[in-house]
Amino acid sequence: MDTNKSFKRKVITKLGNKLNKILSKTIKRRKEKPNTETPVQIPSSLPPVQQIPSSPLPPTDSTMSDKHHRTSPFCFPRGQSTVLPDPSRFFSPNLLSSPLPTNSFFQNYCLNNGTQPEYIHPYLIKSSLTSLSISSPSRYHTPAFIYQTFTADLTISSTSNPSQTHQISSYHDLSITLDLPPSLRFYLVRGSPYVTFTTLAGPTDLSFSTVHAILSLTPNDSCTKYTLTMNSGQTFIIYSSSPLNLEQSNNSLLTAKGFSGFVRIAVLPDPSYEQVLDQFSSCYPVSGEASMNRPFCIEYNWVKKGWGELLLLAHPLHLKLLSDDSSVTVLDGFKYRSIDGDLVGVVGDSWVLKADPISPTWHSMKGVSEDGYDEITSALRKDVESLKSNPITTASSYFYGKAIARAARFALIGEEIGCKDVIPTIQQFLKSSITPWLDGTFNGNGFLYDKKWGGLVTRMGVADSGADFGFGVYNDHHYHLGYFLYAIAVLAKIDPSWGRKYMPQAYAMAADFLTLTKKSGATYARLRCFDMWKLHSWAGGLTEFADGRNQESTSEAINAYYSAALLGLSYGDTHLAAVGSTLMAFETRAAQTWWHVREGEGLYEEEFAKENRVVGVLWNNKRDSGLWFAPPEWRECRLGIQLLPLLPVSEVVFEDVGFVKDLVQWTLPALERDGVGEGWKGFVYALEGIYDKSTALEKIRGLKEHDDGNSLSNLLWWIYSRDDGCEGLVEGIRCCWYRHYGR
């Protein structure tokens, strides 16, 4: 077996070298010719593996919208929303001139009263506007839920004329700076075992209160370290840059008069950790940034103050992806619990994370068996013919996007199996369906630009926060726009003239959730949905939730970045293709880590892991087996929402055949329930086809209808592009000629 794998690696390496040489020559020839904005044409003699440049990605101050339109990027008509909150109450005035985050890890701090807690690992942190409370959360679990509860273990405030609200003075990918004017500034850095604050206005009177009873307060000789024990069984250590001189006023209150400097607070989960916390207490981070300078690579850098080395915590996916390029030391024996798995100590102020490369292929990754050509062709002709008599009737941006992406799949299936005579009909359907959304002539809905937060909204959504599944309040942007971008990418591929005409609109839609810039004056917020610390997307938008942001469908998130990569391929834009592919790869690994549940793995409690094979909705502070639209018992929906839309990249997401078998066997009994939708059954059978092709094929042939984003053609294409009797990990599906950039 090992010999076989070694042989395959050598073959892939040789293939990559050949493709690299071919592409280098192609790029050289293109540089010698005038730029006509014609999409890159991949030589027909090459296997169906698409290319991304070997050169580093552009700096992170670039955007998706300015590459081809440097003077005046396209902007959709201005919309005036009556349902969006006003950000000016909580953001510093100097931040209001730039687009603001709408799906961030700290979003609760700028919604409604700003008093809902956020989980900034490993603490739940709540602002009460004039004070800040820290919770080392308790964790509860049932077969249906895992959640953490907030308790105000320690509350910090100043008695120096506090204002009536907190203020976000700065924010970054890995941190937020939260001020309690005029006296205190909190540096809330994700993954820090310490909560750090500094005084702003000279000597300040401080108070530290708790809902528990204080059992003991022990200072060191210099009064720069205090060990605080409580009747909750918790121990906190309080460090300070100068003598704090804490006094106990009663059994739940400590005070310090006239303090100036910085304070760091850490819970002590294990007495043996005290020496480690002592060692690194003098070096504190004030901000943290993430950057993408190479394909399939994210680099973290923190700005620090004090002296010594920087100690932070890594979640399980960080540990899997930490590269040898990182000059860090992992403290395997130093762990904090979290809802995302154990957080492990890492020493170093720069990390490099690398994901396995994934090819953004138009077609199946290993080809369709010719045995299925006739059956697929027959179904494809019927599906394409139905486009003539079944126009899209919905005005919903989500369901409309699914419908046009479904039609776009027909074109690529036709290309792959040589049934190209259906493409003109599909092309016309896509042109007539997509163009009105891009030129503003669609009746009943359309995209608008919101200046207040800096992003797209819909006509239906500017007056109704529930319309378009909350798109008007920035919910699910990557889902909706991902479907549109997929259809646009395909149409631009088969109709380059149309693609060139509507390229500005396409890039504006991509920029809404793929902008990388951090500069003021940008049009769109930076990476609206993707969380550079958790390495997956969030979908909650500007709605306050007790458990923070959430995401239901990882597969639709993956589709968004996959579609952006295809758009880059259609336009010959290697930068966009690389960014899309990179985010797709990280989102895939996150889905496999936190949404795919494996019994005995230890990430989640066994009570939950035994009952579930996929998480329904993943929240920042909770795991829910239910869906927004279905109860936990509807397992076919839980499987389907993690698979749709069915695409070439789906086989990478579900590459673990053993897990797929467990998932399907866990789901199949639910199909015996009365009223199970045929569309959901199709997704279950699609995964069954990974390990039992013939059985799945017979079941698919018996389906009477399909999901509104799926079709018989697509299911047959999927089944006939599966291997027979596959075990372990599906081999050969991550083949990328630029693989060495991901190592």
UniProtKB/TrEMBL annotation:
Residues 96-361 form the Glycosyl hydrolase family 81 N-terminal domain. Keywords: Carbohydrate metabolism, Cell wall biogenesis/degradation, Glycosidase, Hydrolase, Polysaccharide degradation. This is glucan endo-1,3-beta-D-glucosidase. The keyword Cell wall biogenesis/degradation applies. It comes from the Eukaryota. The keyword Cell wall biogenesis/degradation applies. Pfam families: Glyco_hydro81C, Glyco_hydro_81. Residues 368-718 form the Glycosyl hydrolase family 81 C-terminal domain. The lineage of its organism: Eukaryota, Viridiplantae, Streptophyta, Embryophyta, Tracheophyta. GO terms for biological process: cell wall organization; polysaccharide catabolic process. It comes from Rhynchospora pubera. Belongs to the glycosyl hydrolase 81 family. Its EC number is 3.2.1.39. One of its GO terms (molecular function) is endo-1,3(4)-beta-glucanase activity. Residues 36-54 have a biased composition (Polar residues). Residues 24-72 are annotated as: Disordered. It catalyses: Hydrolysis of (1->3)-beta-D-glucosidic linkages in (1->3)-beta-D-glucans. It is an enzyme of class 3 (hydrolase).
